[in-house]
Amino acid sequence: MMRQGKLVHIAKIVVQLGRGLNGVFAAIFVFGLVFSVLKAPAIDAQLTLKYGPRLDVETARHFFQGVLLLGLPAVYATERLFASLRAILATVGMGDTFSAANAARIRLIGWMLLTLQLVDVALGVAAGIARSLRLDFITWTPSFTGWLAVLVAFVLAQVFSAGTRMRDELEGVI
Amino acid sequence: MAVRVHLDEMLHRRRMTLTDLSDRVDITLANLSVLKTGKAKAIRFSTLEAICHALDCQPGDLLTFDSGEQP
């Protein structure tokens, strides 16, 4: 029991740190987008300097803006995911985990993980575009564990729904 | 509910209180009260056995079915 309490405490700290880090990423994405719009000529100049005059700088800039835009649904999904996780951890502390609310939260986590996976796929497409534009970009590989996590979250949500129904049934049993 | 619980009458006949029964059958007063007032959704065989043992009665003395009442 003591170990479980410690684990919950650590999980709460990790969630809090994750939310903070996600907030930083959100700020970076928004700042990057605003900066790329306001300082477009300066960015174009930098891109020309790096890749040479043969690069279509406007397309390249739009590409990077698109990638920054992709970050927004990712940070939104991550925030919703962490908020749900924090709420679930709070119920663990109160000893009331099997509830309809937690089942809904886990389902929401599943949807948010799915959103993150779709963003990841979009990043894969972006990596392909970057290659065709001859731009330096991340090396993308499909995340199979991510898709597995989506599946696990939805299955767990079903398990929690069934558990809640069973507990409700048992409540009136003497 | 169509199934009626006659715990109150049984206790009265045996000059026992719900607290006495609670001590004897090791079931909380709150749960026995739920049973007595007919608010319980179900009763375990083990509970029924313990109450029958404590009150020296049959399950049929505690529970009756009223076919005229809607479930």
Automatic annotation (TrEMBL), chain A:
<protein>
    <submittedName>
        <fullName>DUF2975 domain-containing protein</fullName>
    </submittedName>
</protein>
<feature type="transmembrane region" description="Helical">
    <location>
        <begin position="108"/>
        <end position="131"/>
    </location>
</feature>
<dbReference type="Pfam" id="PF11188">
    <property type="entry name" value="DUF2975"/>
</dbReference>
<feature type="transmembrane region" description="Helical">
    <location>
        <begin position="137"/>
        <end position="157"/>
    </location>
</feature>
<keyword id="KW-1133">Transmembrane helix</keyword>
<feature type="transmembrane region" description="Helical">
    <location>
        <begin position="62"/>
        <end position="78"/>
    </location>
</feature>
<feature type="transmembrane region" description="Helical">
    <location>
        <begin position="21"/>
        <end position="42"/>
    </location>
</feature>
<keyword id="KW-0472">Membrane</keyword>
<dbReference type="InterPro" id="IPR021354">
    <property type="entry name" value="DUF2975"/>
</dbReference>
<keyword id="KW-0812">Transmembrane</keyword>
TrEMBL record, chain B:
<feature type="domain" description="HTH cro/C1-type">
    <location>
        <begin position="7"/>
        <end position="62"/>
    </location>
</feature>
<protein>
    <submittedName>
        <fullName>Helix-turn-helix transcriptional regulator</fullName>
    </submittedName>
</protein>
<dbReference type="Pfam" id="PF13443">
    <property type="entry name" value="HTH_26"/>
</dbReference>
<dbReference type="GO" id="GO:0003677">
    <property type="term" value="F:DNA binding"/>
</dbReference>
<dbReference type="InterPro" id="IPR001387">
    <property type="entry name" value="Cro/C1-type_HTH"/>
</dbReference>
<dbReference type="InterPro" id="IPR010982">
    <property type="entry name" value="Lambda_DNA-bd_dom_sf"/>
</dbReference>
